[in-house]
Amino acid sequence: MAATRKQSETYRIVPLYIVAGDTVFEIDERIFILNSSALKTRLKDPPVSSAPRYQFPEGSKELPLVFDDVSAEDMALVLDALSPSYYLEDDQLEKVPDDSGESGPPIQEWLAVAEFAHQWGFQVLHTRYLRLLQGNLSDPVQKVALYHKYSTGLNKQFGLAIEQLVKRKEDPNAEELGKIGLDNVVKLCTLRGLYSCSPELKDEEKLTQKIKEVWEIVDWY
Question: With a threshold of 0.85, does the pTM exceed it?
Answer without folding.
Answer: no
